[in-house]
Amino acid sequence: MRLHSLRVDRVAGAGLSLIVFGVVFGGYSYLVVGDSTYTALGLACVVLGSVMVMVPGNPVPLSAVRAMVEGSAVNVEALLEEYEARGKAVYLPPRDGRVYCYVPLGEFSDADLAGVLRSPVRVLAGSGGLMVFPPGSEVVRLCDLGEEAGLEDALSYVLVDYLEAVESVKAVEEGDNLVVQVTGPRMETGFPLFAACLGSAVVSVAGCVAAWVKGEPVVFLGEDRVKGSVTARFRVVGLGEE
Question: Does the CA dihedral 211-225-221-235 come out positive or negative?
């Protein structure tokens, strides 16, 4: 079951329970007891339950949220262009509740990641690389993604339910390799360096989700587009207790 659907079902279920309780309690109070105070309490429960059922789970227009994600990529693009970055980004596990990306500017290996993780968050970090804040990081933080969530459920919750940025998503894990396939992507950045280093908009959000769920660095390897679908490849770097 998807995380978003579960949360919505709980709210709607509580609302329906209040409506049923209010109807029964209010009707009994009016017809049998004849007490106007208890009758009013029953009506209040019906009103409150109706509000819980009718109010949408996400009152913020999703098109506006997607536009903010797409627009915020311009700062990352400018930074990548300024330093002529061409390396593939490493999505780092959450620090202070946020996922960051490390984009190497030169030769880089997994052994360098331990130093990067210990480095303070600043533009130039580690062994000659950029530390950037991907737009998807704030999305993951704000959508209240539980750490106990499975990867595919988490990806579906963020990309399909929360952002409505894709029609569907699948995740396949084979050892350290991770393949994420999305169909019907609705978000684009239009920034070539951002797409080359961090992946396209939906892929970058997927990288943030993967780093959050796995709690390990996740390296973006590349992506392919075929007939309305995007297939992205990542590699999870297990550093253990280092």
Answer: positive
Instruction: Indicate the range of 37-41, 64-68, 83-87, 229-233 predicted with least confidence.
Output: 64-68
- Same domain (yes/no): 36, 93: no
Q: Mark which of 54, 76, 97 sits at the end of a domain.
A: 54
Tell how many helices (H) and how many strands (E) occur in the chain: 8, 8
Per the structure, the complete domain to which residue 145 belongs is given by 62-236
For the entire predicted model, the pTM comes to 0.72
Q: Of 241, 202, 236, which is closest to residue 221 (Cα–Cα)? A: 236
Contact 173, 151 (CB under 8 A): yes
The DSSP string of 75-118 is HHHHHHHHTT--SPPEEEEEETTEEEEEEESS---GGGHHHHHH
Question: Per residue in 86-113, pLDDT tens?
Answer: 899 999 988 888 888 999 888 877 777 8
Same domain, 126 and 44: no
